[in-house]
């Protein structure tokens, strides 16, 4: 008997017929002798409807009241799933965020989960828990921010020391790269938390990043599965997200995946004085404005004693970044600011990289062979990322997917 | 400075524009220096939508989970009204049933309100409270049954010792009779709890009967007002529902109103043996089946030593009543059961009646003058009711409305 948390997103909960399917899937696990807690999202579209009500009532809505309004979506699906489970003979009970309670910080609309009490965990009864919501210390409803239900599921799994947290989504697992770009992309059987964080944050939108971070911290084994498969022996296995110790040596030989992210913008400051401390005058004001700088390249110095500095910021923060820098133009001393949003970050991800120094070299050579110019480079322990012109995105992903032996035929 | 509870129904809360109107109306009272608590219903149509979800999930839904689902409707409007109030500079905070808490019995879907804690009552802040919901002793959401928000409002008013409980509805007060039947019906300035109970339970559907009973028990002064009037000096005054001691002698001279109720069915048992105890054999099994019998007429005995017994039951219980009686046919000894749903109960209501013996006589004469046949009669301290054929409903109401001097011209 295992203890399992099952999490179903808005698409799986959209309407009574789908909720009944979810109930049958849960019954399948209960019948197998497992103890199950379920975390659910609101019906798809419902949270948007409720958020729009709040915005319409006042663009400057009080986040404490916003939380009261939007948390109702998951409350409804929790009650309905409990009814649907009872209807097929599975004892079930809904437990709202304030009932468990799921303690959170008081940062309304983007609260962080703290302690979760577990007195509600009962043998032989499925607990149905609304995702995305909790209770602040002053007894008010909080929500975790959009997509927070994944995080709720992982937090509940950690609290009850679950053997597994199964996240049912509208994809059936994590792939070596975006299958829309590379039809021969393979579904991964296992991926480490660190790899998943890189894959999720650079484009493979399967799980909320925060939930993966929490799973890593708490050591929760997370499985990503398709909610559209019928449960049973023919069910397609999903992808397990686990700690590095669960990855064996053979798996470690491989690069895990290729990610791409079109959500970065490149900024270049022309002719920054080439003297100690110059770089600090650029990045300190950006940090003060909470603008996240990713890749940084300092170009070769000009003869004139100045240098060009290039870096990337998230697309959504570009306007603000330009504003901050222009106001510091005299302090920094650059002559011109140019920016470019037609860029893509391509990342090669894999825990094996730590012992494979040639990974980066192969990446640069593969891209150079196709005439793809590299605008910036950044590396971490488990990834190498390059910035290229966005026109080459698909070509670069395909070339690298093949170069690292990730294509389905190669993997047989 | 008065302490006021304001209650707004589903029509008043249907959409953000209307919620903004409600907020302005509340601001009007706050600006006048009053301390205000507000009780709200769900947006009209929302509770039906949620109830249908539960039915669709399982016709035999668990009422505990039904309560979790349907209570969300009022949760949403509470949060939105708090936002709308804040947007026009009125400090406001929503307080859900479990937060106050509003303690209730554990009869899910039809709970009774017990104690309401009042620590949430704060000077200078409007408390927005969802109607219809509360908290059971075992920490689960309960609801009061349809229309329960009126009862919530009265209970909150009693708890905080409010000077007044203003119920905003889509009618602008309580009338001497149904204005659709008698255009010259007058709006009453005052009506006693007892009269309101009779008027409500026999057809003037303005307030939920249970809320009037609670107001009477707790001595809460209730005002019924139109939610569509603009607040201000030109606002039409509503109807105050008060204790008898607030009704002066002049008002006491009058009959208060004429009510009609098409929701009764007449049952006649033919040739019941005319012996002691025979009537008990009829009504005991009906009482055992919780079928409410209203008017009873025992006809003149036949020569054969038998008698016909006629009575009324609520239309909705007729089929069950017939079933119960047919199963007891031998014990009771009747030869035939006939029933008739084409009947209406007409009631003349007024606290003045206790000192006016002629009221009943005038009623019988007025109806006889128009050739309206009386099928059954019942009286209470403050009303006289007769059963007539439904074809005469409007005629009877108009004749009596005139006979008792209730027409608008007479009242000038």
Automatic annotation (TrEMBL), chains A, B:
Transmembrane segments: none
Domain ACT: 267-351
Enzyme class: transferase
EC number per UniProt: 2.7.2.4
Coiled coil: none
Family label: Belongs to the aspartokinase family.
Catalytic activity: L-aspartate + ATP = 4-phospho-L-aspartate + ADP
Top-rank taxon, per record: Bacteria
Protein name: Aspartokinase
Pathway: Amino-acid biosynthesis; L-methionine biosynthesis via de novo pathway; L-homoserine from L-aspartate: step 1/3; Amino-acid biosynthesis; L-threonine biosynthesis; L-threonine from L-aspartate: step 1/5; Amino-acid biosynthesis; L-lysine biosynthesis via DAP pathway; (S)-tetrahydrodipicolinate from L-aspartate: step 1/4
Record's keyword terms, sorted: Amino-acid biosynthesis, ATP-binding, Kinase, Lysine biosynthesis, Nucleotide-binding, Transferase
Pfam families: AA_kinase, ACT, ACT_9
GO-annotated molecular function: aspartate kinase activity
């Amino acid at each position: 008997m295992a203890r399992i948390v099952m999490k179903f997103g808005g698409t799986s909960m959209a309407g009574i017929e789908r909720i009944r399917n979810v109930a049958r899937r849960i019954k399948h696990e209960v019948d197998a002798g497992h103890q199950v807690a379920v975390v659910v999202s609101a019906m798809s579209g419902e949270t948007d409807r409720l958020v729009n009500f709040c915005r319409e009532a006042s663009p400057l809505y009080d986040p404490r009241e916003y939380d009261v309004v939007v948390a109702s979506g998951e409350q409804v699906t929790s009650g309905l799933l409990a009814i649907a489970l009872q209807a097929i003979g599975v004892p079930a009970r809904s437990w709202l965020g304030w009932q468990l309670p799921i303690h959170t910080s008081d940062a309304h609309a983007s609260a962080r989960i703290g302690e979760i009490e577990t007195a509600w965990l009962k043998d032989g009864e499925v607990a149905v828990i609304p995702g995305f919501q909790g209770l602040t210390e002053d007894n008010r409803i909080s929500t975790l921010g959009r997509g927070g239900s994944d995080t709720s599921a992982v937090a509940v799994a950690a609290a009850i020391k679950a053997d597994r947290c199964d996240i049912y989504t509208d994809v059936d697992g994590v792939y070596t790269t975006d299958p829309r770009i590379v039809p021969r992309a393979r579904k991964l059987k296992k991926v480490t938390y660190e790899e998943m964080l890189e894959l999720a944050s650079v484009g493979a939108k399967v799980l909320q990043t925060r939930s993966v971070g929490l799973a890593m911290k708490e050591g929760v084994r997370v499985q990503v599965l398709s909610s559209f498969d019928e449960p049973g022996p023919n069910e397609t296995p999903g992808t397990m997200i686990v700690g590095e110790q669960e990855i064996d040596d053979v798996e470690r030989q491989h690069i895990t995946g290729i990610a791409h992210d079109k959500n970065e913008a490149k900024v270049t400051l022309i002719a920054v004085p080439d003297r100690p401390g110059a770089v600090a005058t650029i990045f300190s004001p950006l940090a003060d404005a909470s603008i996240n700088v990713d890749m940084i390249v300092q170009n070769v110095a000009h003869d004139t004693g100045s240098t060009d500095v290039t870096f990337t910021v998230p697309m959504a923060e570009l306007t603000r970044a330009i504003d901050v820098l222009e106001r510091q133009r005299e302090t920094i001393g650059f002559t011109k600011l140019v920016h470019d949003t037609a860029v893509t970050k391509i990342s090669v991800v894999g825990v094996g990289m730590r012992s494979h120094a040639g990974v980066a070299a192969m990446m640069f050579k593969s891209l150079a062979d196709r005439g793809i110019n590299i605008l910036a480079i950044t590396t971490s322990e488990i990834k190498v990322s390059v910035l290229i012109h966005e026109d080459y995105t698909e070509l670069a992903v395909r070339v690298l997917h093949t170069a690292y032996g990730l294509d389905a035929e190669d993997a047989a």
